[in-house]
Amino acid sequence: MKLVLQAHKLQKALTTAKEVVSKTLDPSIVLSQHVLLDFSQENQITFLAGDKEINHSVIITVEPNEGEFLSFPKEFEIETKDGHVIKQLSVSCNSFVDAVTGLNGKTLVTLEFTKPPLAGELTYANLTYETTVVRVEASNGQGYALLNESLKDAVAISTLDVSERILKDIIQSTIFCVSVKASKHTSLHTLIMSLTPTKLKAFGGDYSRIALCSYTFQGTPYVINGFNGFAEDKPLTFNLSRRVGAELLRLLSVTDDTVKLTFHLTASGHVQYLQVVKNDEELIFNLTYSKPPMYSHIVPETFADDVVCNATEIKDKLNRSIKFGDIILINSADNVLTLSATNSGTLDSFSTEITNVKTNPDSAPLNLRIQGKHFIELISPLQESARFRQVAPDEMLLSLNFVTKKVPVFVVRDLDNNELDRTYVLTPYNSVASVDNSSK
């Protein structure tokens, strides 16, 4: 087998492949550190990287008039028991990347197998360019985690067309709240997406902070053909891990181009696989499912807007405050907001007033302590969202609310986005705003 491609094509195909491979978490997959090359289409190679959670593929076209070449002899083909012919090989991804990184894009690179690899055998392939020869680990590719072979098991398939910018904004403004700490509750480790006929919602959070985001579809309600029970009160739910979320953020742009999400549903009404195609790239995610936690016991339907303030100004004052202490005391008076911090173990303290605020005369003054860094971390993605929409971040307003339903919580709302409804819940210091994972 001989393949000759320009270096820039290999660099394009392998850049993302390396990212996927380097984050592979399942050591049980022998070939998880390889990139799979599929030659089933004439004059095209599909570069696939992945494991049991993520598959990423890029299609590269061979152009003979540019000096490129492909020869895949019949002896390299593998015939399955059902008569299906497989044309694929795999090579070590990291070695492949290291060999072509930094090359002039027009440099012709040759990948060559001198003999067909045996089943279950790790062998090598030769990678050559100019006067350089690199030997890379290789195999016949059997045993690779091909998620697309499992897509046919779905009982129903549905697609959703959504703006790339909107989807990217939903994910980036919520996934940072997903817990990285060990917990018995799966729901704390994933971003839970909930799809109804009229909305796409995202829930993410742990015991110290929660992000809630809702996007209302424009036009006619969303319908899943051939799948019963889908309604506002019976949403389609699926979970995105931090790793899956990061891959989506990488793929999605901030344009208003449409990206197609294909949901592969199980009989129980869950999304088993999510397929995303953009230009010549495809991502397939094997998703987990956990019962969405309920937040209605702590988050009300409406808010009094106890204090309305400028996001940039309060972020600047918070950054100054946390240098003196992690816990920030927030007090409000008539159109004044005060932030205070104390350096424990010393007599050092910090206090600053924000006068460019509007307080609700019908609300009780704010008087609570919060983790300063958690407050700052939620403002940053809101500012990023403003940049996505080409709106000046300095003009963004936040609504601050102290709410006591089942437990006391500090709620921050974004007032300047008419596309996404976003609410953030922070647990006041020494209080517990646990999510409800009960089955009631």
Question: Your description of this structure?
Answer:
A hairpin with a 5-residue loop joins strand 17 (258-265) and strand 18. The protein is elongated, with a radius of gyration of 26 Å. The chain contains six helices and 28 strands. Helices cover 16% and strands 38% of the residues. The chain folds into three domains: 2-147, DNA Polymerase III, Chain A, domain 2 (Roll); 150-286, DNA Polymerase III, subunit A, domain 2 (DNA Polymerase III, Chain A, domain 2); 307-426, DNA Polymerase III, subunit A, domain 2 (DNA Polymerase III, Chain A, domain 2, Roll). It is an alpha+beta fold. The strands form four sheets. Strands 5-1-9-10-11-8-2-3-4-19-18-17-12 form a 13-stranded antiparallel sheet. A nine-stranded antiparallel sheet has the order 16-13-14-15-28-27-26-20-24. A four-stranded antiparallel sheet has the order 23-22-21-25. Helix 1 (7-22) packs antiparallel against helix 2 and helix 5 packs antiparallel against helix 6. Keywords: DNA-binding. One of its GO terms (molecular function) is DNA binding. InterPro entries: DNA_polIII_beta. One of its GO terms (biological process) is DNA strand elongation involved in DNA replication.
